[in-house]
Amino acid sequence: MSKVFPKVLERVVQNLARLPGLGEKSATRLALFLLGQPKEETQELAHSLLELVEKVRLCKRCFNFAEGEWCRFCLDPERNKSQICIVEDPAALSAIEESKAYKGLYHVLHGLLSPRDGLGPREIKIEALLERLEREPVEEILIALSPTVAGEATAAYLVECLKPYSVKVTRIACGIPMGMDIRYADQLTLKRALEARQRL
Ligand SMILES: [Zn+2]
Fold first, then answer.
1. How far is the CA of 107 from the centre of ligand 1 (A)?
2. What's the gap in Å between 58 CA and the centre of ligand 1?
3. How far is the CA of 101 from the centre of ligand 1 (A)?
4. For residue 65, what pLDDT band results from cuts at 50, 70 and 90?
5. Exposure check for the chain: N or C terminus, fewer CB within 10 A?
6. Which domains does the chain have, with CATH numbers?
7. pLDDT of 155-194, one tens digit each?
8. 135 C-alpha to ligand 1 centroid (Å)
9. Residue 76 Cα, ligand 1 centroid: separation in angstroms?
10. CA of 65 to the centre of ligand 1 (A)
11. What is the largest CA-CA distance in the chain?
């Protein structure tokens, strides 16, 4: 630790340097910026961080972030309760929501199956999903996981788990991204795109 700054400032630098993407240099720059800001603005940042850790928890039903027991989607009477979209984490949920193409409920796994990292069906909320199916009038489960190795393995496992239930299981289509030249698409992407072709 440098001896240049007062201890309180060094403490802020050390804390900021632990954030992803910030090294000691950028943490120092940020700490000095915060110190140079009007006092109220930095206080507001500090208060919002306190509120974040005190108030945000996981929705009792879908495990999305929530301020109370249930998240805003579970509380919204306009959402279609017969559909559950399965996402890896709240960031994926936010991406789907921004598409404005989905109006059902969610189930947030908070991870993908990874036995090596100790992530089994219980840890990633698959058991909780099956419990939901026992009490909720669900007709369709839409799997919206990324087509990565872990995403594919988790999707395959989910399909197996859902077999005994009388729900329609669907998966978001994977294929050529908008604006991409198909000559540069990899084999697997093209294969998936061809399999998911649509009648026009
Ligand atoms: Zn919820």
1. 7
2. 8
3. 18
4. very high
5. C
6. 7-55 (1.10.8.420), 65-195 (3.40.1360.10)
7. 999 999 999 999 999 999 888 888 889 898 888 888 888 8
8. 15
9. 9
10. 8
11. 69
Residue 46 CA, ligand 1 centroid: distance in Å: 27
| Residue 147 in tokens | 């087509």
φ, ψ for residue 35 (rounded to 5)?
Answer: -70, -30
- Give, as one character, the DSSP assignment of residue 161: H
| Distance in Å, CA 173 to ligand 1 centroid | 24
Q: Give the three-class secondary structure for 14.
A: helix
Query: Tokens 């061809």 map to which residue?
Result: 194
Mean pLDDT calculated for residue range 52-78:
96
Burial class (CB in 10 A: 0-12, 13-18, 19+), 185: middle
Residue 58, helix vs strand vs coil: strand
Q: What residues contact residue 168 under an 8 Å CB cut-off, 6+ apart?
A: 139, 140, 141
